[in-house]
Design a protein that fits this description.
The complex is a heterotrimer.
Chain A lengths: L1 H20 L2 E7 H5 L2 H13 L2 E7 L1 H9 L5 E4 L2 H9 L3 E17 L11 H11 L3 E3 L5 H12 L12 E3 L4 H11 L2 E5 H6 L6 E5 L6 E9 L9 H12 L1 H8 L2 E2 L2 E2 L2 E2 L4
Chain B lengths: L4 E12 L2 E12 L3 E5 L6 H9 L5 E6 L5 E4 L10 H11 L4 H15 L14 H14 L4 E5 L7 H16 L3 E5 L3 H7 L2 E6 L2 E7 H6 L4 H10 L5
Parallel strand pairs in B: 3-7, 3-8, 5-6, 6-7
Antiparallel strand pairs in B: 1-2, 1-4, 8-9
Chain C lengths: L1 H17 L2 H34 L5 H10 L5 H12 L14 H28 L2 H7 L4 H11 L1 H17 L2 H7 L9 H10 L3 H33 L10
Helix pairs in contact in C: 1-11, 2-5, 2-7, 2-8, 4-5, 4-9, 5-7, 5-8, 5-9, 6-7, 8-11, 10-11
Classes of the chains: A alpha/beta, B alpha/beta, C mainly alpha.
Chain lengths: 269, 233, 244
């Protein structure tokens, strides 16, 4: 029995050790990006081109940027331009580069009791607010949450003080928020990628899409080695350079779910 | 018959919280003696044993002849979930017996009590009498000059009791001083050279055995004797 | 609801037969991280527990109470504290072990050590009555006597260690925060289940849960078998005295 335990421990130690040998960097990104499946497609292409492994830690946007601030990641890949520019301005990032955009949609019950269906996100939110129908917000400082708050402001609806009747914030990721929406027959603002991969749809369908305001811009930032000397600055820069290069951009465009392209590359030429 | 003083107690008192378990006891143990402690439950027999053995905090003074080796045997011996052999070796290790001497002493001890054939068996499957003989082997192996015994045969059947009494007598003949508490006045009469009667923490009577059983005793002790004698074996 | 469970059972079965390589890696990592944490927690925890049971010093009761309180430490809290320690911005950042299995082992050891220590302390304290005195009379210093009692009660100790292992392998809060649930590197069974749940793939999440229970259940069955063999050896003969 003791021998069995010892040999298992030894095997695992060598496994742990082996992992440390490959070249790798840590990238903090968002749960919605990871759950869209993009990384499973993109990162192997990058590894083939450069030999570098990327270890993705998926969190909310706020937490992802905080991870970069602490120097626990080498590169940050999120979708909240305002927060990203602040990150660089504070000196934690080298430079922000736009990479791609995807879009948000509003999903809701098939019967659409609030009458939100259409191409106008602001009008839809106004109707949802006045109908008092359930609306599930992520409420977690994520890029999605930040976008959602912007749309509410555009619709002149207060969701902090005098909330609409059905408004609830879960402080959770995109998937859990959709889970709640599915079980309460509520409306949810979600990125298309997570939605296409989401399997627990119940009665929910896409009701609002195509509004240009729903486009969600991604940026990539290498963490500043001046603030954190240990950061793998060169390897991180290799990734940044690749993802905005024609090869990286093509790889992004090639990612499809059910024949549908999810992310639209738009790095500055 | 009385040899050198091994342990001496002077005005020793033991308190457990508010209770006085032992009250101002004066007592000296000499080499070659076999002392029986008798008295009712709660009279202080076990406390006196533990104080003599040096295991209890007390008021008063306790003198011990330099480097005195002691061992104690209890009514129900604690044997670890190990073999007979390992229990014995453990005792030798705890007594800091040098490593090369341990195995020979363990073999000798097992032979002394007649348990050589049982040495690989788990100690806890032995019969009651065998377990107590193992406890005696454990004590004998460390070559004590004083052996304390706390009601060693109280839980044993008559045959086992005889075996244990036989061993105890032999140990004494080999030179060990004995201090034994017992409920059994017949046993005290058979085995002891000196009998101490305790009552309520006080040492009331301290006489050679013959005197204890044949000379008139003070009131409480005499009553005790009358109460106990018809039932002794 | 029934079809959810049915689908989950089917998924669990096909995962096991298919011997999905990624699943095997996740299971292996779970066992490795929690197993290592238990071994470390056992070493330190048993020593602390035994020591606390026999030591007498002012404030001992308070320390025991504090230890028993730590039995209810939420795993997320442990994860957060360890994260703050191991982050590059924290005091131990230069170790560089955040988001690696090593950090997960550290967090789970911290989580599980109080379990081992508190239960060991109770074990020794209970076994001490009567028996401790006899060991001391044989010349054992208090701490040695405590360790001998642990040796004596090794079967009960197995239950303590199993409890600790169960706590470790079933927790998700600590390993999620300090490990980051990185695919292929720090993803374990519980974080995988959490991920699939949040993606809405409930049958897969439940299937993974069934696999996890199966793995832990097999381990427990193995230990029970071992205990039965040892118990058979111990069966008392009719003539033996009642054990102290």
């Amino acid at each position: 029995m003791v021998r069995l335990i010892a040999s298992v421990v030894l095997a695992l130690c060598t496994a742990f050790g082996a992992q440390a040998q490959d070249k790798f960097i840590v990238m903090s990104s968002t749960t919605s990006t990871e759950q869209s499946g993009l990384f499973a497609h993109l990162l192997p292409a990058f590894k083939a081109a450069s030999g570098i492994d990327i270890r993705v830690v998926a969190q909310g946007t706020g937490q992802a940027l905080d991870t970069g601030r602490r120097g626990d990641a080498d590169v940050v890949f999120v979708h909240d331009q305002v927060a990203e520019e602040k990150f660089v301005a504070e000196g934690f990032g080298v430079k922000r580069l736009p990479v791609m955009y995807n879009d948000f949609v509003i999903v809701g019950p098939k019967g659409d009791p609030a009458g939100a269906r259409g191409k106008d996100v602001v009008a839809a939110l106004g109707k949802i607010a006045s109908s008092g129908q359930p609306f599930v917000s992520r409420g977690d400082k994520s890029g999605t949450h930040a976008a959602e708050l912007r749309y509410w402001r555009m619709a002149a609806v207060d969701v902090e003080g005098n909330k609409p009747r059905g408004y609830q914030a879960c402080g959770c990721g995109m998937g859990p928020a959709l889970n709640i929406g599915a079980s309460t027959n509520g409306y949810v603002l979600t990125d298309r990628g997570t939605w296409l991969n989401f399997k627990n749809r119940a009665d929910l369908v896409v009701l609002v899409e195509g509004d240009t305001r729903l486009f969600n811009q991604y940026g990539v930032i290498a963490v500043n080695p001046a603030k954190h000397a240990h950061v793998k600055a060169q390897l991180a820069q290799t990734f940044v350079d690749w993802v905005v290069s024609p090869a990286g951009q093509a790889s992004i465009a090639a990612y499809k779910i059910g024949g549908q392209q999810l992310f639209f590359p738009n790095a500055d030429r | 018959m009385t040899g050198s003083t091994l342990i001496a107690l002077q005005a020793v008192t033991v308190r457990f919280g508010a209770t006085v378990a032992l009250s101002s006891v004066d007592f000296s143990l000499h080499a070659g003696e076999r002392v029986a402690l008798v008295g009712a439950n709660g009279s202080g027999k076990t406390t006196l044993l533990r104080v003599l053995h040096g295991r209890l905090a007390h008021e008063g003074r306790r003198f011990v002849a330099g480097d005195l080796r002691q061992a104690m045997v209890f009514q129900r011996p604690f044997l670890l979930r190990l073999s007979v052999w390992h229990n014995l070796m453990l005792a030798l290790w705890l007594a800091r017996v040098p490593a090369i001497e341990r195995a020979p002493r363990a073999h000798a001890a097992l032979a002394r009590v007649g348990l050589s054939n049982e040495r690989h068996r788990p100690a806890r499957v032995l019969s009651g009498g065998q377990q107590q003989r193992l406890a005696l082997a454990r004590a004998w192996a460390v070559r004590p000059q004083v052996l304390f015994l706390d009601e060693p045969t109280a839980s044993l059947d008559p045959a086992a009791k005889r075996e244990v009494e036989q061993l105890i007598t032999e140990f004494s003949a080999e030179g060990m001083a004995l201090v034994m508490s017992t409920h059994n006045l017949g046993q005290a009469k058979r085995l002891a050279t000196r009998v101490l009667y305790l009552e309520g923490g006080h040492l009331v009577v301290d006489r050679p055995t013959v005197d204890f059983f044949e000379q008139p005793l003070p009131e409480p002790a005499a009553l005790f004797l009358k109460g106990e004698l018809p039932w002794s074996a | 609801m029934n079809e959810g469970f049915g689908a989950a059972l089917q998924t669990a079965w096909s995962l096991v037969i298919g011997f999905d390589a990624r699943l095997a890696q996740v299971v292996g990592l779970s066992l490795g991280v929690s197993g290592t944490a238990c071994v470390l927690a056992a070493g330190f925890g048993m020593a602390i527990g035994a020591g606390l049971a026999v030591a007498r010093f002012p404030g001992q009761r308070a320390l025991v109470a504090a230890l028993n309180t730590m039995l209810a430490l939420p795993s997320v809290v442990v994860g957060l504290v360890v994260y703050l320690l191991l982050s590059r911005a924290g005091p131990l950042g230069s170790l560089g072990i955040l988001f690696t299995p090593t950090a997960m082992v550290v967090a789970q050891t911290v989580l599980v050590l109080p379990v081992v220590a508190a239960l060991t302390r109770q074990l020794v304290a209970d076994a001490w009555h009567g028996n401790g005195e006899q060991l001391r009379s044989m010349g054992a210093p208090p701490f040695v006597a405590a360790l001998l009692l642990l040796l004596h009660e090794r079967l009960a100790l197995v239950t303590v260690l199993l409890t600790a292992f169960g706590r470790a392998i079933s927790e998700v809060g600590a390993v999620m925060i300090v490990g980051g649930n990185i695919e292929g590197v720090t993803r374990v069974m519980t974080t995988a289940i959490a991920l699939e749940t949040s993606k809405g793939d409930l049958p897969l999440a439940l299937g993974l849960g069934i696999v996890l229970l199966g793995v832990v259940g097999s381990l427990n069955a193995l230990i029970a078998l071992l205990q039965r063999r040892q118990g058979a050896q111990e069966r008392a003969t009719p003539m033996a005295m009642a054990a102290p």
